[in-house]
């Protein structure tokens, strides 16, 4: 059994993309949805309120876990509690079942899945997946790669938070993957800061690093193709002609809004 675990805020397009691509290797999805964003802002249970649509397509393969947080549980504490909050839903699975944990916009390449499993079993430890990173559009590539999802057998970790961040302590920001083996080459993609104008602006006030910035200024920077300004001076990017496997491209082509130069 292969179980994919992740978190959800309001990114329905990215959820559809994530499910459509990962169903090539995933048996069961567990998605945690809290009543607050990482920044502590109250929000509705967006996915829970629209779950029937996904049940009609995926049936019992998809499972949603709700988590109620209070106003003092914000930022890194909030993120930690969300990732740890997936643990109870994993109890029913066997120790040899395979668990993926990452963010919704982190997608493993289906054509690289078998080599990830081989690497995990060869080293008998979790695999930290290196990803190519794209900002705002599927053809705007960052100048650096991303340390993304982690894959492990259930017996190899205590909670998804510890698997992803490398520590069970509350408030750990940076990822510590010293107990995992890393992939030599990228095995997937981090498609970050993607969505319509409202999704982008809502992410600004919802996530940890950008919650005090002006949403309109961030959105304008993305529209000007300036990710250095938009994402806290972390990374420049350039528009390229990316090469995606056909199984992935068939999904991405459905979303013309997510391309600077839509594919025909």
Can you characterise this structure?
With 264 residues, the chain is of the alpha/beta class. The chain is 32% helix and 23% strand. The chain has 11 helices and 10 strands. Strands 1, 2, 3, 4, 5, 6, 7, 8, 9 and 10 form a 10-stranded mixed beta sheet that branches. Helix 8 crosses helix 9. It starts with a strand and ends in a 12-residue tail after the last helix. The model has no long low-confidence stretch (mean pLDDT 95).
Q: Could you state the oligomeric state of the chains shown?
A: single chain
Proportion of residues in β-strands: 15-25%
What is the element string, with H for helices and E for strands?
EHEHHEHHEEHEEHEEHHHEH
Number of helices: 11
Q: Can you tell me the overall shape?
A: globular
Could you report the average pLDDT, rounded to the nearest whole number?
95
Distance between the termini: 36 Å
Question: How many strands, which pairing sense, and closed or not: the largest β-sheet?
Answer: 10 strands, mixed
Radius of gyration: 18 Å
Low-confidence stretches: none
User: How would you classify the helix and strand content by structural class?
Assistant: alpha/beta
Number of strands: 10
Helical amount: 25-40%
């Amino acid at each position: 059994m292969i179980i994919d675990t992740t978190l959800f805020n309001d990114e329905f397009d990215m959820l559809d993309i994530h499910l459509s691509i990962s169903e090539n290797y995933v048996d069961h999805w567990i998605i945690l949805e809290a009543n607050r964003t990482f920044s502590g802002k109250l929000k509705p249970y967006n996915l829970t309120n629209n779950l029937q649509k996904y049940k009609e397509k995926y049936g019992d393969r998809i499972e949603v876990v709700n988590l109620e947080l209070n106003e003092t549980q914000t930022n890194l504490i909030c993120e930690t509690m969300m990732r740890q909050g997936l643990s109870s839903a994993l109890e029913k699975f066997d120790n040899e079942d395979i668990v993926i944990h990452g963010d919704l916009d982190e997608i493993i390449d289906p054509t690289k899945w078998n080599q990830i499993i081989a690497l995990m079993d060869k080293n008998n430890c979790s695999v930290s997946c290196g990803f190519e990173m794209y900002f705002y559009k599927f053809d705007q590539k960052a100048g650096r790669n991303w340390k993304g999802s982690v894959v492990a057998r259930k017996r190899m970790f205590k909670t998804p938070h510890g698997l992803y961040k490398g520590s069970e302590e509350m408030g750990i920001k940076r990822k510590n993957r010293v107990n995992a083996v890393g992939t030599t080459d990228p095995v997937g993609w981090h498609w970050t800061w993607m969505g319509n104008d409202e999704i982008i602006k809502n992410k600004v006030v919802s996530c940890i690093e950008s919650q005090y910035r002006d949403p309109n200024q961030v959105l304008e920077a993305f529209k000007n193709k300036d990710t250095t300004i938009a994402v806290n001076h972390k990374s420049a990017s350039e528009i390229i002609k990316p090469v995606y496997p056909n199984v992935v491209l068939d999904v991405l082509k459905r979303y013309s809004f997510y391309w600077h130069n839509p594919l025909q």
